[in-house]
Amino acid sequence: MLRLITLMAEERYNSVELEIFSWWTAPGEREGLDYLINSFQEEYPEIEVVNAAVEGGAGVNAKDVLKIRLLRNIPPDTFQVHAGAELKDTFIAGDYLRPITELWQEQGWQEVFPEELQEMVRERGEYYSLPVTVHRSNRLWYNKEMLAEYGLKPPQSPEELTAVVKILAEEGETPLALSSRNLWPITHLFETLLAAEASPDQYRALVRGERSWKSPEVERTLEIMQKLLAHVNEDHASLTWHEASEMVLQQEAVMTIMGTWTRGYFAARSAVQNEDYGSVVLAGNNPSFLLVVDTFAMPSATENQDFTRKWLEFISRREIQEKFTEVLGASPPRSDISHEDLSSGVREDYLDLLDQEILPSIVHGAAAREVFVNALNEELNVFLYENDITGTMEVLNQLAEIYLKPLRGRR
Ligand code: GAL
User: Fold this and answer.
1) Is 263 touching ligand 1 by the criterion CB < 6 Å?
2) Which residue's CA is the closest to the ligand 1 atom numbered 6?
3) With a 6 A CB cut-off, is 29 part of the ligand 1 pocket?
């Protein structure tokens, strides 16, 4: 038996495999990951890359599988994780990661990644992952032809949105495509509206647990949601985020609210911006940038550290990040990429990053620890069916009281 275990360990140690774990399986995401893997393979043909992606937007299912593997000490060689609270409060706090500070120093990454991003992957002086995308969550995507048909301008604030939704509903259209399969897209809608209704300081105070969730901006957000939810597609519970985006392409709905991965999805479906679809930031008077950052990390139990380092070094490269983020519809996290080299859609977000308020996304792991996000997902899906504004605010406030205070013994 012991011999067998030793053999298995040796086999793993001598393995030529690099297992890459992510949730990039939807159109757009898949093409982006394929680009990374194929170009890595060209440079390292001797390494066998295993694509261990698990289906499910925002990592809903992938994170469950990943946790089992980490707990049972059978980790992949590298995995996708959101920078910020998700990385820190789940994976660093749980001691599942190996710091990659040496690699950061050796590669000079401190000089090429903005300090805000570095801070999101650093804890007590050590770096734990490498940023590969900067996505924006607060965008509205619309079918150009349909809006034009009714002589409507794309709404850029919640107020304009409710007005446009009302008109389109009266015309017999489905104004807004919604998905609620996997729960998180409802929280996505909520945080986009909240960031538009709250001032940046209020939003930050809310996600830090320093402000009551029974505040007027939370109430206004739920009131707007109530108005919107009255006019969404009835089959939302069976749809994923990209199936809701597809409704816009198929003219089954006029608009949808989703992150910049919808840009990647549309590109994969050969839809052209400003022809087939348009996109605006949905934010209100002082547009903010709701930030989502994907990174890759190295589990502490990985045997194949050398391969993981090669992967991280490869995906940090300027030319790779530039091309890969374009396929995904995201901005490149490196700051040494010229905006002139980006496509017009991505460029708009890349430039906004430089001069707008940057606020961390809740639902995509930047702002708040996972236990809060999961509870918020559940509660907002209850709201979807029950429509109880006062009751929902009461529960959100309790959740914030319990889960948004700093963890004991840390920070
Ligand atoms: C986000 C992730 C994006 C994209 C999206 C939809 O959480 O950061 O890269 O994958 O989910 O799956």
Assistant:
1) no
2) 57
3) yes
User: With a 6 A CB cut-off, is 292 part of the ligand 1 pocket?
Assistant: yes
| Element at 100 (helix H, strand E) | none
pTM assigned to the model:
0.95
Which atom of ligand 1 is least distant from the CA of 364? 7
For tokens 């396929």, name the residue. Answer: 327
How does pLDDT run across 223-255, given as a tens digit for each residue? 999 999 999 999 999 999 999 999 999 999 999
Dmax of the chain from CA atoms? 75
The CATH number of domain 2-135+293-354, selected from 3.40.50.720, 2.60.40.2550, 3.40.190.10, 3.40.50.2000 = 3.40.190.10
Amino acid 256 reads T
Task: Decide: 123 in ligand 1 pocket, CB within 6 A.
Answer: no
**105 Cα–ligand 1 center, Å:** 28
What is the domain partition of the chain in residue ranges?
A: 2-135+293-354, 139-290+361-403
User: 239 CA distance to ligand 1 centroid (A)?
Assistant: 16
Please check whether the two domains, 2-135+293-354 and 139-290+361-403, share a CATH topology: yes
Task: Calculate how far, in angstroms, residue 391's C-alpha sits from the geometric centre of ligand 1.
Answer: 30
Rounded Cα distance, 350 and 354, in Å? 7
Q: Is the CB of 58 under 6 A from ligand 1?
A: yes
* Model confidence pLDDT, tens digit, residues 89-128: 999 999 999 999 999 999 999 999 999 999 999 999 999 9
Task: Read off the pLDDT of each residue in 397-401 and give the average, rounded to a whole number.
Answer: 97
Running DSSP on this structure, what letter comes out for residue 113?
S
DSSP, collapsed to helix, strand or coil, labels residue 239 as coil
- Checking if the pLDDT of 8 tops 60, the result is no
Q: Whose CA is nearest to atom 5 of ligand 1?
A: 58
Task: Kindly provide the b/e burial profile for residues 226-244, where b requires at least 16 CB atoms within 10 angstroms of the residue's own CB.
Answer: bebbebbbeebeebbbbbb
139-290+361-403 is a CATH 3.40.190.10 domain:
yes
